[in-house]
């Protein structure tokens, strides 16, 4: 059987979806009407080979306009136009069209539709199974390729998997690779809390001390700074600390270096 015929059966499967939907385009509690007409390019896998075809799908009514310059789908036997909710095309030719509902079901965040072809179609024994899962967008999004099985080419099964937000009655799952919305900011841990307490506490201490000096003791200018004497000497204290550290490091180097143990006999040049 030609790959194009397999794709045609895929189109038939989509037609079945429309058949499952009732007059107001609902399948159970799911409203499929916002999906509209969708043109999909999908590969069909059959007996280790794959081929690319185009499907035009409208879950709420027959597809009457073919994609690009392709000829409109007609039955291979009777020659009559085969309106289908799903039609399958090669580059310029119609392969098949399916529109006979044989079964459907709706569950939690999922739905399925089974389709068959009419008796005057080119493949009346082909069966299509369409599986819809909760997704991120309204438009049908294919999941994998069309999988075709069956030993008899006259009676094949076509499995289609799509996602759409129209079958979501729970929380919409995040897309692959990460969450959809803005990421939650990391929680403040123990170190973060310590830093906040220290800086906020120091700020409050300075403000309270300045107000106390100003109101209660009548101080003005630099006298309002808490521990003003300490801050005046702060630069010199830093300098002394650096000098002290350098001297200690030099002493350690001399004790462990090539002149270690020579004591006062070694002099720096």
UniProtKB/TrEMBL annotation:
One of its GO terms (biological process) is protein transport. Gene3D superfamilies: Mannose-6-phosphate receptor binding domain. The chain crosses the membrane at residues 193-215. It is a single-pass type I membrane protein. Residues 1-23 form the signal peptide. Keywords: Membrane, Protein transport, Signal, Transmembrane, Transmembrane helix, Transport. GO terms for cellular component: Golgi membrane; phagophore assembly site membrane. The keyword Membrane applies. It is found in: Preautophagosomal structure membrane. It holds the Pfam family ATG27. This is Membrane-associated protein, putative. It comes from Bodo saltans (Flagellated protozoan).
